[in-house]
Design goal:
With 192 residues, the chain is an all-alpha fold. The chain contains 11 helices and no strands. The longest helix is centred in the N-terminal third of the chain and has 16 residues.
C-alpha cells in the first residue's frame, strides 16, 4: 500500500539523519519496491548512497527524483553537490542555479552553490552565495567556515578570522570540524 511506502521513506529519512546509511538504503529500497514513483525515496537513498561512497548509484537515484519532481530544490541541491564533488562543475552549476531559483530562502541551496562556485574558481561568486547563506542561517557554522576560507584566499585575513571564530563558536567542540577551525585560526595567527 502507498502508506507503507510513505512510512518506510520517513524511516529512511530518520535513519539518514542518524547517519545509518545501510538502514536508510534498506528502508528506501523497500519503499521504492512498493512505490517506485516516490521522489523522496530516491532522494534519501541517493543521499545515503553518496555518503557511502557510491556516487554513481547516488546520481541515478537523484536523476530519478528530479525526473519525478523537477521542482524539488532539495534534490537539485544534492545532485549539484554530488556533481561538483565529481568535478562536473558546469552540470553542478545548472542544478544549483535552479535550486536557488526554486528555493530562494534556502540557505543550503545558497551555501552549496557557494561551495561549488569556489571549486570552479569563482571566489567572488562563492563569497556572494555564502554571504546569503549566512544571512539566511547565521547559526550554521559550515557556511561561516567556508566563507572564512574564501576570505582568507582573497587576502581578507581579519574578516576570515572573524568568520572562523564565529564558526568555531557554533560547532560542537569535540567535532573534527572544531579541530580544523582551531588549526586554521592558529595558522592565521602565525601568518600575521
Amino acid at each position: 500500500a502507498p502508506g507503507d511506502a510513505s512510512l518506510r521513506i520517513q524511516l529512511g529519512s530518520i535513519r539518514l539523519q542518524l547517519g545509518d546509511l545501510p538502514g536508510t538504503i534498506d528502508a528506501c529500497t523497500r519503499a521504492l519496491a512498493i512505490d517506485p514513483r516516490a521522489p523522496r525515496g530516491h532522494l534519501y537513498r541517493g543521499m545515503a548512497l553518496d555518503r557511502a561512497g557510491r556516487a554513481q548509484e547516488a546520481l541515478a537515484d537523484l536523476d530519478r527524483a528530479i525526473a519525478l519532481d523537477p521542482a524539488d530544490a532539495a534534490a537539485r541541491v544534492e545532485r549539484g553537490r554530488v556533481l561538483a564533488n565529481a568535478g562536473r562543475l558546469e552540470e553542478a552549476r545548472v542544478d544549483l542555479d535552479r535550486a536557488v531559483s526554486l528555493a530562494p530562502t534556502d540557505p543550503v541551496a545558497w551555501g552549496t552553490r557557494g561551495q561549488a562556485r569556489d571549486l570552479a574558481g569563482d571566489r567572488p561568486g562563492a563569497l556572494a552565495d555564502l554571504d546569503e547563506a549566512v544571512r539566511l542561517d547565521p547559526r550554521r557554522g559550515l557556511w561561516r567556515s567556508c566563507r572564512g576560507r574564501i576570505l582568507e584566499a582573497l587576502g581578507r585575513v581579519r574578516e576570515a578570522e572573524a568568520d572562523l571564530r564565529a564558526a568555531l563558536a557554533l560547532v560542537d567542540p569535540s567535532d573534527a570540524a572544531a579541530a580544523q577551525l582551531r588549526s586554521d585560526l592558529e595558522r592565521l595567527a602565525r601568518a600575521r
